[in-house]
Amino acid sequence: MKTPLPLPEPLGAPRPRRANDLVSPRAHAYIDRLLLPIMLGCAIWAAKRSKPAAAILLAHLGEGAVGCITRFPTGIWPLISFRTHVRIGQVGGTTLLALSYLLPAEPRAARNMAIFWGVVPNVLNAISDTSGPDAA
Length: 136
Fold this sequence. Notes:
The protein is mainly α. It has helices spanning 25-47, 51-60, 62-68, 82-100, 108-126. The chain has one domain (25-127).
């Protein structure tokens, strides 16, 4: 008995490059839009406890501006690709995470909030799929 041949992949079908490509560009866009007001609320909360921690959280809102100029479903001015958006997020998230660790004399809750919001973009960008045609 003959073994059946595997069916060919349809043309243009995105294939994940890595095992951790879990979030599509569309899902990433919606997650960004969901987290932006939550982060703003956390910045307002932190402002009552620590001005430096609140400033770091407000600097994260620059990622919201990057989301507005990215070519994905919730972008307003599609100027940059999703891959560029992810690269900016990787650099910006890491920088703001490092700044959050420079707050040792600030209240623990505000400092931990700043550290948490430094980790979130790094994790989201690490599991985002930048290999498909939507990312270019």
